[in-house]
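Practice record 12: protein with iron/sulfur cluster.
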Amino acid sequence: MATQILLNNIDVPGLANFEVYRQLGGYSSVVKTLKNLTPDQVTGEVTKSGLRGRGGAGFPAGMKWGFIDKKSEKPRYFVCNFDESEPGTFKDRYIGQRNPHQLIEGMILGAYALGAGSAYIYVRGELFYVLRIIEKAIEEAYKQGFLGQNILGSGYSLDLYCQPGAGAYICGEETALLESLEGKRGNPRIKPPFPALVGLYGCPTVVNNVETIAALPWILNNGGEAYAAIGVENSKGTKLISACGHIKKPGVYEIELGLPVEEFIYSDEYCGGIRNGHKLKAVVAGGSSVPILPASLILKTAAGEPRLMSYESLSEGGFQSGTMLGSGGFIVMDETTCIVKNLLTFARFYHHESCGQCSPCREGTSWMEKILHRIENGQGTMKDIDLLVSVSKHIEGNTICPLGDAAAWPVASAIRHFREEFEEHVKLQKCPF
Ligand SMILES: Cc1cc2nc3c(=O)[nH]c(=O)nc-3n(C[C@H](O)[C@H](O)[C@H](O)COP(=O)(O)O)c2cc1C
Ligand code: SF4
């Protein structure tokens, strides 16, 4: 059984209540840290741990904290990104719903390290039931002296607020999130400046994902080196993977980074193999925004090495033959899946969720949806396939935020690996599935 840092007590009845969480050792990292460590030492432990952001980009957490503008006299903010709207990704809500105190404990540690007196948890609008659970847990933490003025007599004070979004995928992009938190329309900002210098209300801010923050108590309890001892290369610790699609056992799994993909898909400890004796056709390994890979390339790299669940191994081969770990939304497809239809579903999503600020994304996502709709419904031409590639290339790298890339990569990769399936739709003038 892999080390469980995030899900170790997840099935304990009543874990969302303060008493149960505390009895299991909860909040001990806060007691220890506020007594023994300076904020810089906390950042030092997180840097040593090698923890990378679990929201998708995989940026090293300690390094990001190190960028916070400490010379500024403005207040500093720590913000939790609980927007979780990436198709195929459903891990953060599991922590929020079952183990909200672990997230709050992590928020206190992060805010302390950054010298923030106020912190926010921005929760996706559709997850209102989770927001209610977190709000109740925050109330308990205040009552028990873990939030508010002079926490545990340490002299450190923190106010923690929970804010619902209004249900827009783009508000998961960190600068759009900050705009939304300020009460404005959630449009991504042009960067630089990055939030560490100019963030919430123009003040130094760090935004981290739920899973990143929930790993902090373990790191502060056990030390950064112990965390770094788990995993491989620059992929340290554990990662939550939300597995769905045509597998026998969909669900949220905590893996040690470096687990072979084949073991993750086929072993009974995880996905349990493909449903009803079907065959693996393709996998979208890190949420809908990452390139799709056919069975041959998800199980082994182009060089024939076993593919591992790690940042390095999944991206081995670049965009020609690799993909990304992303948010850990692992979507498995068997041979009954129509790749064109799947892509049309994703394209419709990105077109709907584009905030419309940049022309390549606003117009390009609309074009990609229209062309895919034509091909899937038997009205496509061979030229349409190349037109799709061309539109995706004109979006990639030409937009304010990465939503444009996220819309373009799945299209380009699906045509790269499954071109004959697109051509078959055109030849038959209908969907062959
Ligand atoms: C369109 C878009 C949607 C995103 N959605 C989320 C999200 O729901 N949750 C999240 O943590 N990060 C999301 N991100 C990434 C954030 O911008 C940011 O990198 C992340 O919150 C930083 O936290 P981390 O360093 O702990 O991963 C999204 C990015 C983009 C471009
Ligand atoms: S890339 Fe798309 S979502 Fe991002 S800012 Fe531009 S239009 Fe908005």
